[in-house]
Amino acid sequence: MCTFTQQSEQSSTGRGPQSRIRKLLALFLFVTACMFQGFQLHAQTFPPATSCTSKDLELISATLPAPAANPCQCSGTRNLMLGIRNKTGSTRTSFALWGTLKRFNAAGEQVDDNGIKTTAGTPIFACANQVKANSDNQLQATSGLTSITVRCGESLVIENLYLAWTTANSNETCDFLRTNTATLNPKCGTLPSIKIGLGVTADFSVNNATCAANGSLQVFPSGGLGPYKVTVAGTTRTGIVAGSSTTFSLPSGTYNIEVTDSRGCINNNFNRTIGNAAAPDVSGIGGAFTKTCTAFLNGALIGETPATGFTYSWAPTTGLSTANVGNPTANPTTTTTYTVTKTNTATGCTSTKQVLVTVDRAIPGISDIGYGFTKTCSDFPNGTYIGESPVIGFTYAWVSNTGLSDANIGNPLANPDATTTYTVTKTSTTNGCSNTKQVVVTVDQAKPSISSIGGAFTKTCIANTNGGTIGESGQTGFTYAWTSVPSGFTASSADPNVNPQRTTNYTVRKTNPSNGCYAEATVTVTVNNTLPDVSSIGGEFTKTCVLKTSGADIGETPVTGFTYSWSPAAGLSAYTIGNPNANPTTTTTYTVTKTETATGCFNAKTVLVTVDQVQPSVNSIGGAFTRTCISNTNGATIGETPVDDYSYTWLPATGLSASNIGNPTANPTVSTTYTVTKTNLTNGCTNTRQVAVTVHTTTPDISGIGGAFTKTCTTNASGAAIGETAQAGFSYAWTSSPVGFTATSAYPTVNPTATTVYTVTKTNNTNGCYADAPVTVTVNTTIPDVGSIGGAFTKTCVLNTSGATIGETPASGFSYAWAPATGLSDAAISNPTANPAASTTYTVTKTNLANGCTDTRQVVVAVNTEAPNFSVCISQPSLCANSGSVSFAASGGSGFEYSIDNGTNFQSSNSFTGLGSGSVSGYKVKNGFGCVTTVSCSDVVMACAPPVSLNNQQQRTISQKVVLEGKPVTQVRAAPNPFSDKVRFQLESASSGYGILELYNLNGQKVRTVFQGYVQSGKAQMVDFLVPGYLKTSLVYVFRVGDQQVTGKLIGLK
Could you give the dihedral angle defined by the CA atoms of residues 988, 990, 992 and 993, in that order, rounded to the nearest 10 degrees? Predict the structure, then answer.
């Protein structure tokens, strides 16, 4: 047995923290030692709970009573008392329990014996002796755990209890139970938990506050002696009995609870915290970024992955893909601080967080970039610097880089060979944004053009004898300086005149003063004037028509280095060679100029060629003429009268009467030019002459004559023009078949009534030739046949109820159009189904699609489907006999038949008699067209004043009236409908004026105003009144007009 004696806490230092710590440490060491002694040395094995079948004993309480001298003491070491109920008649020796002891501090947190938070409990064993029979025993534990040290505000509970007890055998002690756990059954049992009573204490139920409402703290006081008083946050509740509770509505926070029992014992060591619904966690919301010209061009996601149970709202919304998701895409154009509100949909709690999106897209400044210059032969011949002094934080890239010292710096040396536009891109290394600027370097180093400087020439005996001009035409903006070899010549003009005596080289320097550039050119003048030798040139001869007819060579064998030029050139085979063939037509003296090509000097000599070749005269040969269709139709004589000693030959011979005479007759079929050769028989010389015979017998072209057309009802209805556009020099003559048409125009308009062939004769007024051409005009204006179109019919309620087909069977090549289209299945076919609602005359237009001609026909469809109108006069049956009757008055047709059984049977008579109650189920009237009018019993128009049906068992007619001598009657007729809850009132007044009809119950209370309004004297006013269910009892009606009043009674209404 472990025992522990605690020092009294009555001293002034016993209540201090250090004293408590020493006591707790001593208690911890003691309890630990006892636990190892009592439990850890023995392995516990218990029978299954299902085998514990005895219910003799049960554990009903476990307490740590305060000292009797100080019942309100809340701390210290106390004896463990067990409440054991023995339901048997024998005293049991021992009762034991095993379980796990758990300790909770004033805040409800589980702690160990030292007050340190833990989740583990302490295994315990406790046992008491002598459990008396048939009683509830309060026994101090005498074995195992016998006492426990507690602190104010703590609570204790034993969980997972296993209970066991002995018989009355005195040998079955607590040690017996502890060492024989495996054989305890069936005297055993289990208990989930039991709270150890500690004096005044309490249990608590805490509900946390939300963002919109307070939380609650429910206090269950116990221990001590009730009833209790509970104080929380300055609020006190009294009269709380044991087993009940009180609830406080409180905001979030930590609260001290004070519980006082009826003896004044106070326990204020309880603290409970009412939590607040946590604000949403926004620590994960982020995504701040910087948008530059190279990074995040399209923005980026910000926020967080959406969390279930939360909503999001972003502001501002500018630049966001959407403003109500957890992670929108942000793509603003300027730096923006986005604020997101995250809301817990369950608690309504919100949190906000900001996300900064920086937009850094500033374009680099380029205003200082420049220094364009012009490079010439005298200015900046080696180039110079362009751009700007490099700025830190920026890079530079030049394009083109030709002629640059470095293409990647701010101020490179530019020395291009040609005018160049340099483009520099200045880029910020911070945000990647760039800007460009151009710098133009003009290169003006072009040397003067000397391509046009020239004028080199050779001075000979005949060329440039006085010298010549060299150089070029002077150009503005340039200077010239001439020198010569051999020396001796200078000049400053652009084109000086030189005349050397020997070959000389002239050199000029051409300078552009604007850029200092120059170029040089040399011009050579050659001098050569020795005369050539012409002594061997000769070859004179005589040419006739039979001797040397092809001429002969004259001159000399050509000499190398010399050129020849003969004059005149006529009759020479060539005039630039040394020995040409001379074949002139007349006597000619030829002069040849022999020129030395090396020197340009020349010499001349003449050669005579005599020509004796007189040709015959042909001037009198002629006779050209024109043959047409009306003149020289057989030809005519051409040539001349034959001359002696001459012969004649004509070509071609076609169309000639003879080809070897001086004057043949020519009669060709086509235009022909005849050539005649006339020969001098004495010297053999000949001559020719041409004679043209024109044959103009071509008939006119009629290929353009046309215009054949077809005349229909829609095409060319007024005719059309035929023929061709008139041609100058031609005449026209028209005839027709059938005859009757003549015209002289080229393009007449014709409008025949029948197909006609028109023939035109086209005549050439110049040569009288003509040609005929026919033009056919086809007339197709036949009107369609509508004789077979029909189908008129009558539609009644029993005949052709769905209409019928009208028109004709479709004819190929024709279209149809019906009007009106109302009631037709199709208004564009030949045989539509016609089903109009009213009588209709349909007109169909039939069109020949080939010629557009139309004709119309009408089809009448008569519609007789109007239902008849009728009213009935009903005479109600008596109670004891079938004496009722119904008579009809019908209009709207003829041949009426009548039915009172809703159309089951019809009769031609309009009167039904011998009717009993229930004989009428529905009214129908049918006319001769089979059309039926159906009216429900409740809506039938009464043609007489029927008797009043007060209920299904009795009928009564109510008619009240006031008769004034010599005046119309003031009266009321009430006629309830036997088939509905309606009552029809017929009101008549002796005088005109304002009238009112009211209903009263038998207690004299007005229940309804049925009618109020103007009533005309002598004219019945009908009023229908639907009696509601709650008024179906006896009623009194009152009808007043001025000073006249009529009353009546409706009895037994249902």
Answer: -80
Q: What is the architecture, at CATH level 2, of domain 793-864?
A: Sandwich (2.60)
457-494 pLDDT, tens digit each = 988 888 898 999 999 999 999 999 999 999 999 999 99
Query: Whose structure tokens read 């009144």?
Result: 1025
- Does the fold of domain 945-1054 match that of domain 625-696? yes
From 805, 851, 849, select the one nearest 830 (Cα to Cα).
805
**Banded model confidence at residue 577, pLDDT cuts 50, 70, 90:** very high
Helix (H) / strand (E) element for 30: namely helix 17-35
Q: Which fold has domain 625-696?
A: Immunoglobulin-like (2.60.40)
1031: three-class secondary structure by DSSP: helix
- Is CATH 4.10.410 what the domain over 374-444 is classified as, yes or no? no
Burial status of residue 787 (CB atoms within 10 A of its CB: 0-12, 13-18, 19 or more) = exposed
Q: Starting from the edge strand earliest in sequence, which strands make up the sheet with 517-527, in order?
A: 458-459, 517-527, 504-512, 479-485
Q: Which residue has the higher pLDDT, 1004 or 870?
A: 870
DSSP per-residue codes, 464-489: STT-EE-B----TT-EEEEEEESS--
Q: How far apart (Å, rounded) are the C-alpha atoms in residues 209 and 251?
A: 6
Long-range pairs for 758-761: beta carbons < 8 A, 24 or more residues apart = 758/722, 758/734, 759/734, 759/735, 760/702, 760/705, 760/723, 760/732, 760/733, 760/734, 761/732, 761/733
pLDDT digits (tens, 9 = 90+) for 663-715: 999 999 999 999 999 998 877 889 999 999 999 988 999 999 999 999 999 99
pLDDT at position 939 over 80: no
Nearest to 777 by CA among 715, 847, 726: 715
Name the fold adopted by 458-527. Immunoglobulin-like (2.60.40)
Q: What is the CATH number of domain 945-1054?
A: 2.60.40
Domain spans of the chain?
Answer: 17-198, 202-252+266-274, 289-359, 374-444, 458-527, 559-612, 625-696, 710-779, 793-864, 945-1054
Assigned CATH topology for domain 710-779: Immunoglobulin-like (2.60.40)
C-alpha 464/C-alpha 725 separation (Å) is 71
Residue whose token pair is 């992955």? 305
**Pairing mode, strands 854-864 and 840-848:** antiparallel
In 10 A of CB 982, how many CB atoms?
A: 15
